[in-house]
Amino acid sequence: MAEFEAKLYYFDGRGLAERIRLMLCITGVKFEEVFFTERSELEKLLKAGDLLFGQLPLLEIDGLKLVQSNAVTRYVASRSNMYSTDPKDQVRIDSLYDGTRDFMTVFMAPIFRMSEEEMKKQAEEAFPKYLPVFEKVLKENGTGYLVGKSVTLADAGLLEVLLAMEDYFDAPLKDYPQLNKFLSKMKSLDGVKVYLKKYRKRKNDEKLKTEVMRVLGKS
Amino acid sequence: MAEFEAKLYYFDGRGLAERIRLMLCITGVKFEEVFFTERSELEKLLKAGDLLFGQLPLLEIDGLKLVQSNAVTRYVASRSNMYSTDPKDQVRIDSLYDGTRDFMTVFMAPIFRMSEEEMKKQAEEAFPKYLPVFEKVLKENGTGYLVGKSVTLADAGLLEVLLAMEDYFDAPLKDYPQLNKFLSKMKSLDGVKVYLKKYRKRKNDEKLKTEVMRVLGKS
Question: Nearest by CB to B133, which of A53, A95, A98?
Answer without folding.
Answer: A53
